[in-house]
Amino acid sequence: MNLLLLSFILIWHALSVSSTKSHPHVRIGAIFTLKTINGRVSKIAIEAAEKDVNSDPRILGGRKLSIAIHDSNFSGFLGFIGALKLLVNENVAIIGPQNSVMAHVLSHLANELHVPLVSFTALDPTLSPLQYPFFLQTAPNDHFQMVALTHIITYFGWREVIAVYSDDDQSRNGITVLGDKLAERRRKLSYKAVLPPDPTATSADVTAQLLNIQSMEARIIILHTYAKTGQLVFEVARKLGMMTNGYVWIATTWLSTVLDSSSPLPLDTLNSIQGVLTLRPHTPHSTRKQAFISRWKQLSNGSIGLNPYGLYAYDSVWMIAHALKLFFDQNGTISFSNNPNVNGMGGETLNLGSLSIFDGGKQLLDNILNMNMSGLTGPIQFGSDRSPLYPSYEILNVIPTGYKSIGYWSNYSGLSVITPEKLYRMPANRSISNQHLYNNVTWPGNTTEKPRGWVFPNNGRQLRIGVPNRVSYRDMVSQINGTSQVQGYCIDIFLAAIKLLPYPVQYKFIMFGDGHKNPSYYDLVSMINSDVFDGVVGDIAIVTERTKIVDFTQPFIESGLVVVAPVKRLNSSAWAFLRPFTPLMWGVTTLFFLIVGAVVWILEHRKNDEFRGPPKKQIVTVLWFSFSTMFFAHRENTMSPLGRIVLIIWLFVVLIITSSYTASLTSILTVQQLSSPITGIDTLISSNKPIGFQQGSFAENYLNEELNIPKHRLVPLGSPQEYAIALDRGIVAAVVDERPYVELFLSDHCRFSIRGQDFTKSAWGFAFRRDSPLSIDMSTAILSLSENGELRRIREKWLSEKACGSLQSDGTKDEQLQLNSFRGLFLICGIACFMALLIYFSKMLRQFTTHKHDSSSNSQPSTNIPIQTFLNFADNKQEGTSHKKKFKRKHEDTSSIPCSK
């Protein structure tokens, strides 16, 4: 029995030893280009992490982590061969590859063999977890970096950006994301300069692209490439004078790795990147991070500096180690099985049968994705999109002494001068007003003044400014006879605004039109979109159709379409006193005089002796009382409270009416009045008569398309003289034109007048290309001209009106007081009369009922019908109501007798 037990123990021990020997190490692979900065830093960090993991037996339970690092040496082919070697040797995970080109290829192998690929440098945003479920990015991918760049560009107010990038998957797809994000914020990626893949780009390749950029307008350049190509770009840019004032260079994270790992930089390199902005992945400060930084000089032997990707490399090893610990705690075993997809494919020659599937790969991947640990880079967790939580960057500015930080960007709160980890404790606030960076930025050319981000293209080529060659209203804009110079109201404003720009502008005026008729302003503006002109200066109305193809400046004068028609003077006549009121107003006022008189008579008839007597006398009394209230000259006293209330309200109405009448009559008798059958655009539309418009103006399209006036009614007119002839001869009933032109026209033609109000609201401005920064700067200059009074002075110089220009009354009809203006007063008075009568008749009916009851108690029957009885009762004087009146009259009679001495 003891011998059997001893044999069993020996057999179990032998199997255990055999099992241990079969997998004494847990193998992990790594693929990097070791001649690059990130490759060298990652190798040192990975080896340090491997040593630290193996020094802690609690992690892998006595197993040892074995990491094999393969050098791809800038070759996709060598990288692929290295990956095959690692997979044949049954590695449970691979750290890398270093670039996204290989990541796209190797992810297919990882999917097939269930081996997790963990990369912190292959950050192509198109490496989708749906397509590549076994590929995991442990550092923020370039999607977030491009969002950060977009926020920076928006913060500084730049509108157009040029991208310079290497022609590979990671750079190309990153720039595509940048273009999309800029478009979301109404910014534009105006040009893409493509360079050969790193490190094959030459000076000639870079020079050719930078020379193209020099001839363009935008001066904001995003450089998205790698260290070798990036440094070459800056060297060539400095030689071409592109690292001077006016340029803005923003490099992606490759430059921050150079600054961190290659310090101190050679003087030539440092000089070529002065004023550049760059991003660095932000990792929060911690004791563990500081301790590792202190170890780094010993680990690297001072050969290279540490950058954030070294921290990500270290954390990636520990992340896989913790995932393996959980894997073993879950009773997972490292085992591989044959891949049925490679059977029968000539595996004897290619040895494809050695590519086995890692049976626990899915379980290990899930452990990594569910990781919640703290590393050198901070908390390590993955979101639902399998990207690290709270990606963030530090924004660096290169200066002569090295670099300085000007702020941070995080996906949680946007731009801030506060570290992201502090903001995570607060509610997210990404509003524009909450975006901040330090303002002590040093830009290329060693200036602290923010570059405007653009220049005139083609190395200072003169701006081609289109000017309408007008044949009428030449005060607006005109060519000086026999010269190439132009003058006029609009030209003076343009020249004054140009002087206020903070930079010199070269320009030349180019006339547009044949000089025989006014040109089409829509065609003129369209020339900007056709690249014939860079801008248009003149009396250009800002209308919807034009704003769709160009950008306008701030308006420098208000405008709007008005109607001009012949008028005749209305001289004073014997009946001028009737003009203040319309006939309807006269009729309603007269009616209310009679109504109020009748109401007061009804309310006073039973009580007041002055409202009693024969019918003829009462009619005269009512008429006299009614119209005498107009002059507050009524002699009859009112005794009933209701009568007094009605009278007070009516006297207030009369006061308002007489005051208005007096003011209106004064105006009519002292101001020259003009009359015309055309009172505005409405009567003009309904008249079916011809309508004149200025040739080349937008008025034709507006009248036809917006107001549905047939084209056969529209008559083009070329000059103020044609306006006058057409109006005098009745060729057109009226002319529709913009107010500034009309005011000039009326200053010389006093027999015409503006009828009605402006029926459109518009303005004049200068037109430039879409998204041209010049339109913004010119708008600012025009606002300055308005504030300092220069706009008013220029207008007085060119558009001052003559004496008759002020005779533009809209006629008697507009001066007359309408019933609508007094409708409220009449309504109040009418309601007061109605309520007074209602109360009076209710009270009298109650009295009549009492009287009828008293009469029926007498034996004397009444032969009158009820209505007649009621009328008799209403006509009778109310008893006990006039004793005071009688006493008053008696006193007056007595006092009139002379006293005897």
From TrEMBL:
Gene3D superfamilies listed in its UniProt record: 1.10.287.70, 3.40.50.2300, Periplasmic binding protein-like II
Region described as Disordered: spans on this chain: 878-901
Residue ranges of every copy of the Solute-binding protein family 3/N-terminal domain listed in the record: 462-802
Membrane topology: Multi-pass membrane protein
Keywords: Disulfide bond, Glycoprotein, Ion channel, Ion transport, Ligand-gated ion channel, Membrane, Receptor, Signal, Transmembrane, Transmembrane helix, Transport
Disulfide bonds: C750-C804
SUPFAM superfamilies: Periplasmic binding protein-like I (SSF53822), Periplasmic binding protein-like II (SSF53850)
Record-annotated membrane-spanning stretches: 584-603, 645-669, 822-841
GO biological process, one term: response to wounding
Keyword Acetylation assigned: no
Domain of life according to the entry: Eukaryota
Signal sequence range: 1-19
Main location: membrane
Coiled-coil residues: none
Gene Ontology annotations for the cellular component aspect, listed alphabetically: membrane
InterPro entries per the UniProt record, alphabetical: ANF_lig-bd_rcpt, GABAb_receptor_plant_PBP1, Glu/Gly-bd, Ionotropic_Glu_rcpt, Iontro_rcpt_C, Iontropic_Glu_rcpt_pln, Peripla_BP_I, Solute-binding_3/MltF_N
Residues of the Ionotropic glutamate receptor C-terminal domain: 464-801
Record GO terms (molecular function): ligand-gated monoatomic ion channel activity
Subcellular location(s) per record: Membrane
Similarity comment text for this entry: Belongs to the glutamate-gated ion channel (TC 1.A.10.1) family.
Function per UniProt: Glutamate-gated receptor that probably acts as non-selective cation channel.
Protein name: Glutamate receptor
Taxon lineage: Eukaryota, Viridiplantae, Streptophyta, Embryophyta, Tracheophyta
